Amino acid sequence: MKNTKRRFVPGGLHLGREIIRLLLKDIRVELREPNTLLIVASFALSTTIATAIASGGVQIGNFERSLIYWLTTFFSAMMSMSHSFTREEERGTAFFLHLIASSYAVFLSKLIFNTIFFIIIQGIITAAFLFFIEGLVASWKYFLLIAFSGGIALATSSTILSAIAAKSSTRNALFPVIALPILLPILIAAIHATAESFENYKMLFPREIIFFLAFSLALFSISILIFPYIWNSE
To answer: CA 131 to CA 127: how far, in whole Å?
Structure first.
């Protein structure tokens, strides 16, 4: 038992070090070349401002506000979530990742990086949306919970899908095609739950939050199982 424990702990520590090392590498690359973040932030701001101007000062209905918010979030995810794996393939650095880290460390570091990146993007979208689009939020607590849990579901789904798309020669076009059927249930549930948080002061705990978390956990479990085969495929 003691020998087994000694072998397990160093393995876990080694995996943790690999994840941290790869995560810091991705953060440094993103800070050095923040093109994707700037493009997505510009898209979110321009879309929100254009919608506010097009409405002509007329208050938009709660469902329409929720639809605008999540469509902006969805297309921002499409623009940003695929670049972490795609960048490795296009620059030829994926080969070196095979040499220096396990497939599990690569996937978990990319998942954490994409989640952090998307939370930043969603924060920008939320701030711009609340500032430029007229209307009240009846239940702030549930609006933020829905936005956060829905964003986690989008980031979790997009990570494994971007890994699949990155192996294709048409990776930039393939990612939105395979992502839409997977992410559509999340998008529909998020739109309806967010619309309710805009108008219902006595909103009950949204079932959609449980759905988002269960969806993320299920897809994470599947991703851990299939990612080594995707990552090691030619």
So the answer is: 6
CA distances (Å), origin 28, targets 34, 40, 231? 10, 18, 23
Q: In the numeric block, which tokens belong to residue 206? A: 């949204």
pTM: 0.84
Query: Which residues, at least 6 apart from 230, have a Cβ–Cβ distance to it below 8 Å?
Result: 160, 163, 164, 167
Measured CA distances, 25 to 49, 84, 106, 157 (Å): 34, 11, 11, 22
Question: For residue 103, which of 220, 12, 226 has the smallest C-alpha distance?
Answer: 226
Q: Tokens 């986690």 appear where?
A: 152
CA distance 145 to 92: 39
Residue-wise over 9-41: b if at least 16 C-beta within 10 A, else e?
A: eeeeeeeeebbeebbebbeebbeeeeebbeebb
C-alpha distance across the termini of the chain, in Å: 39
117-161: pLDDT as tens digits: 888 888 888 888 888 887 778 888 889 999 999 989 988 888 898
**Strand, helix or coil at 150?**
helix
